[in-house]
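# nightly structure sweep
# worker-07 picked up a monomer target from the shared queue
# config: single-sequence mode, recycle default, output format = structure tokens
# input follows
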Amino acid sequence: MKTKLAGLIVAATLCLPLGLLLLGCNESQADPKAEAPPPAAVEPDMDANNFKVDHPEQFPLATAAEHKAAPSLSVTGVVSPDVSRTVPVISLASGRVAEIRARLGDQVKKGQLLMRVQSSDIAGAFSDYRKAVNDERLARVQLDRAKVLYEKGAIAQSAVEVAQNAEDDAKAGLDASTERLRLLGVDKEHPTGIVDVFAPVSGVITDQQVTNAAGVQGLSGPNPFTISDLSHVWIVCDVYENALPQVHLGEYADIHLNAYPAKVLKGRISNIGQILDPNIRTAKVRLEVDNPGLMRVGMFVTAVFHGKKTETRAAVPATAILHLHDREWVYRPVNVGRFKRLEVVTGEMLPSNMQEVISGIKPGDQVVSNALPLQNTVEQ
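# output follows
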């Protein structure tokens, strides 16, 4: 009996440390999630932008600060040639293109040879010139003979006057034929069937309507080339009609090039269109800009028009702005545990990672400082 009792005591003594050891192991493997706060649950309201949250303390708030800035208007535009600096290149003679010395997009100098045209007009013009030379020579000889006969009393003075008139007409015809050859670029002493077409101004070839062996119709056809001086260009912008009061003739706008975002140019408003596009309700606004060599025809730019009167706007942390479906929103508390999603219009980025808000909220309003976690909770 004593032996059995002693055995039970020894077994209990051995099991007690083992139980304590197992208990300690279970405590060390406790789930840490049990100590975390319960997840926030969201209950949608009747309004699709209103939400009730069980644990609003998980979404800290920020107060919109006051920011003073001049109103600005950003619009898109396209670089276009200055029409007053665009010159067509014409061929005075019709014919076939024998050689092209320039291509679309080339930079050319005034007087540079652009193309050569083989033309039958040259043969006709030179023939008219030779005929005019012969007619003038004959008229001059007849006038000299009439003067001699008049001095000897063989003819009346009226015959001399008729000869003089014929000489004047022949000389006028010769001058016209000579000028025609000069305009065609032909040396009357060395006639040729080729007409050389030169650049009338310096610039860039922005349009080309001919190729090798193509036909040229002279003044009646399309211009073979168009040369534009791109040292000074236009930027044509579309401005919505409700924003037109912010645009004034003579004022300047900041020009931001999409290709060179760090470069800012100045453009002067030279024209505000008088006709609105009936489909998108915009007016064409033209800016004149000196081209430093970076702008090319067809480039997209952003023009920013600045107002003169300052306005008071709100500024919130950039994380408070939620970008959703191409629109921008903030979450604003409306009651204990309730939030409302408000659409806002943002402006420029400010120092300290703050974002300017043009409309939607005002300084002093409270918003959720980080909108993304709340949005993720709403979507769950």
